[in-house]
## 1
Amino acid sequence: MDFEKIARILHESSYVVCLSGREMIVEDGIDSMRNMSTAYEIESKYDYSPEELFSAQFYSTRIEKFYEFYRNEVLNQAKEPGKSFRALAEMEEMGVIKATISRQLFDFPKRAGCRNVYDLHGNIYEKNRCPRCGRDYPMEYLRDTPKVPLCEKCRVPIHPGVTLLGEMVDIGLTTKAAAEVSKADTLLLAGAYMRSEMAQQFLKYYKGSRVILIHQGSAHGDREADYFLDARADVALPAIAAELRRLRK
Ligand SMILES: [Zn+2]
């Protein structure tokens, strides 16, 4: 399976939806909490697991510690997206990719230039909101406040714009993302796995016949994809975008 063949399939598709997986942000240098050694480091540093720290329950009972963790381990990792996301944006610009769905929190698809993005779990930049008056605060305000960031007017803690474990996801947004998947004739799983929660959630709605899977190494479920490319997303997507440019000439 090579880049040219994948590019040709995308070129011949009429509605491509991309599920952008965790490996795409890991390749860009984000230290994923799901990474085993990071999880262990976090647990020894804070005495709680990442799952406990990032939960609605922890937020409501230990908000100072929550913000210490959120600031140090999440907000301080914020950076700009790399070339895999720029390639996605270019493919959207070309009209090949119609929508991108992500559960990562760093807003990489939009920051790279993708427009039709479904950030299912929110992101660190948007909707950092005062629960009382509804005012939104920029990420920098949360990052640079030494303790718990409070609304300047109401003096109550600002809730970050990400969905914590145990909180309701945005059902409206999830429904719209599912509708995008049901329209797709090709589904592109980039830096993702067939057995990931996100893939399992959306494959149910997919009615097309081409599932393209891109990630490095082998994983459970790879054979369920119609096309599997064993490559890093930041290698594969720019190469595929280049092939698409050539095909469209
Ligand atoms: Zn307020």
Note: The chain has three domains: 3-30+79-125+168-247, 36-77, 127-160.
## 2
Amino acid sequence: MADLFIKDALLPDGTTTSLRISDGLVASLGGSAHKDDVLLDAGGALLLPAMVEAHAHLDKAFLAETVLNPSGDLMGAIMAMDAAQANITQPDIEARAERAARLIARNGATAIRTHADVTKETGLTSVAALLAVRERLRDLVHIEVFALTGFPSIGSEGADHRALLRDAIAMGVDGIGGCPHLESDPHAANEMFLAAAADARLPLDLHVDETLDPTRFALADLAERVIASGFSQRVAASHCVSLVMQSPSVQAQISDRIAEAGITVIALPSSNLFLQGRDHGVATPRAITAIAPLRAAGVNVAAGADNLQDPFNPVGRGDCLETASLMVMVGHLLPDDSYCTVSSAARTAMGLPIAGTGVGMAADLVLLSANTTREAIAFAPPDRTVIRAGVVQAL
Ligand SMILES: [Zn+2]
């Protein structure tokens, strides 16, 4: 494969340089183009590490008009989806998921982790559809499909969902997920999901404590079980909203254990802000996990968009820069740190090599018209050139 030579690119540190990309990696900075190179003239545009959508539900994308959630809360969205499943077909899921994945990729993401509903209502339709989209778009964007096991998944009532999860694993999902906070015993659910993931040798990404109820501690329980069991696969805990309702000392104590367990926390500001806090009429809490104490403890904190124009979030534009902007405004991160939550931290969560403009880094990059990372987040310029593994993508 010919080298890619990117000419006249502005780096986040303010310097302008050229880069040689060879075999998917940044080979050198500076120098000049060779006659066999593929040439990309950046024209002074900003070159950033590509973004990653760490938490999506591609199977539900663009259902906002057809599946309504009048109450606007989490259970309203879940019940609306369950009631609508009979009318949702595999071709429909594939079409909407592909549209969403292409949009997210065109906006600068080279990898997407999507959850796929595995419930008695959906059966394995979402899994089949998203695995098909994963294969169809293989050359455009890396997609991971995680089985989102329905509840109940524990005890005798959970047998059907556990059987569906086993079928999803056999179909070739990339990881296991579920919603312990919706189960009658979230801690028992943590145990079941860890055991299932250990058996299947797959990573785990659970929807954890997606609630402002301060009595919920499934995140702390998950950390203890990961540490005690020596679970060796990657673990992510998505949402983790109730952590923000704890006292600073409890937040710090739990964060230390999350760090020790090596769990990535994936913050999901947009859907949490939409769904949570509706019963707090006064001084409504910011429904986002406790980012500062997690980061202070050394936890890898990534961020995702979660839902895209569906009953869980009627808005969203399929752009990781939108999530980065929310991480500045709601998560109180500085812009550069915020960008990391939708790039390097998300890649770490997915076990992908770090991307960037340093020599030896993976050449997953995005070129956009901005002078700084902060300005890129602020303006979210629409025209972006996406480079994946050293190849300019036609999206
Ligand atoms: Zn989710």
Note: The first helix runs from residue 74 to 84.
